[in-house]
Write a structure and sequence with these properties.
With 368 residues, this protein is mainly β. The chain has strands spanning 9-10, 20-28, 31-39, 46-55, 63-68, 73-78, 81-86, 92-97, 108-112, 115-125, 128-136, 143-152, 158-163, 168-173, 176-181, 187-191, 199-207, 210-219, 222-230, 237-242, 251-259, 264-270, 275-281, 287-292, 302-310, 328-329, 331-335, 350-355, 360-364. The chain has no helices and 29 strands.
């Protein structure tokens, strides 16, 4: 018989490895090949490059990469087709096309607690948008559920992030912050600062149980960039930190990723001449730049860096890397990923343990 102690529970301290990857497309002879390269987060050098996908139509190349630690998979999409790749060797595992009566092109996909969601964004005139959130089935390729909201904005920008611990999806659309709970299906909308087209919110990230957005202010010919921490409950500003790096003539990605081991937010900036990754530390507010190398010397082909993906995000810790500090407290509650209370003696699935000191960990227990 297996016994459990409900008194003092010690969770060991674990070391983390950095896993930051960048996608790059190379087009030659009407064929576009996409590669996934591991980046040295100290100097920007490429550690390894792996084939990811190939298509003779550049508009159909895969994008929206997202790592899921529960399956060790990287999910991506092209229009309304979702792909799953092995998270170690990046080989394709599975793909499915979302079946609808009308043509459907996703804006992005979100993998949250073993459920797949996708968004569609439609401009209905001026600064008015129709945002639709779909839940998709991997079994029969159908839409399980969908919600559509009308959103009127006063600024530019887009981005999304998720919180596994609270089952919430956060979307920034212009100066509107939308928070959606996948269990209660409740939507809350908050208005962010900025009432003109010179303001742009380009990216949002849930990191270390905190919520951040990247904001650009275009003043004359200058671009002033900020990392802003928001209250995840009401969208109010907690702190505003102006970036000192010069990003004039750079085109930033709307995607922010998080490196949990170094407590850094990363964002890709690209031009026709060079490419760099901005890293911003959410603890000490230091920023640094990594210049990415240009590896293609073939004048008959073109290469483009596209987006970042992290296997070291807060939501991407393996089941043995759940907590970086030692928990010394009594257990208060045990939940499954749906938020339902369960017994501690639950095996072969991820459980969430809540302690009386407020800390939570995820773990998996295997029956012998």
């Amino acid at each position: 018989m297996q016994k459990f102690s409900l008194g003092i529970v010690l969770v060991p301290f674990f070391m983390f490895s950095q896993n930051l990857f960048v996608t790059k497309t190379v087009t030659e002879n009407s064929m576009t090949t996409e590669y996934l390269s591991e980046v040295n987060t100290t100097n920007g050098n490429i550690i390894s490059t792996n084939f990811f996908s190939q298509n003779n139509n550049p508009s159909l190349i895969q994008s929206g990469l997202e790592y899921d630690n529960q399956t060790n998979s990287i999910f991506s999409f092209s229009q309304n087709i979702i792909y799953e790749h092995d998270g170690t060797n990046f080989a394709p595992i599975n793909s499915f096309e979302c079946l609808t009566n009308a043509p459907l092109v996703f804006r992005e996909i979100i993998h949250l607690n073993n459920r797949i969601f996708a968004t569609k964004l439609l401009n209905t005139g001026g600064m008015n948008y129709e945002l639709t959130l779909f839940e998709l089935s991997k079994i029969d390729n159908l839409i399980i559920n969908s919600h559509t909201w009308e959103v009127t904005i006063a600024t530019n920008g887009y981005g999304s992030t998720k919180s596994d611990s609270t089952n919430e999806i956060f979307i920034v659309l212009g100066n509107k912050l939308l928070k959606y709970n996948i269990l209660t299906e409740e939507l809350n909308t908050f208005t962010l600062d900025g009432q003109n087209l010179g303001v742009s919110y380009k990216g949002i990230i849930f990191a270390d149980n905190r919520l951040f957005v990247r904001k650009d202010d275009y003043i004359g010919n200058q671009s002033v960039n900020y990392i802003i921490e928001l209250n995840k409950n009401n969208g109010s500003i907690i702190s505003t930190n102006q970036l000192t790096s010069n990003f004039m003539n750079y085109y930033p990605s709307n995607d922010l990723v998080y490196l949990n081991s170094t407590k850094e937010i990363a964002c890709l900036f690209i031009t026709d001449y060079d490419n760099m990754i901005l890293k911003y530390n959410i603890t000490n507010h230091n920023e640094s730049l990594l210049m990415l190398p240009t590896e293609n010397n073939n004048p008959n082909s073109t290469e483009n860096y596209r987006e970042l993906v992290s296997k070291d995000s807060e939501q991407s810790l393996s089941n043995t890397q759940i907590e970086t500090t030692t928990v010394n407290s009594k257990i208060k509650n045990v939940y499954n990923l749906l938020g339902q209370k369960i017994s501690l003696e639950t095996f072969n699935q991820v459980i969430i343990i809540e302690f009386e000191n407020g800390k939570k960990i995820k773990k998996i227990q295997y029956s012998n």
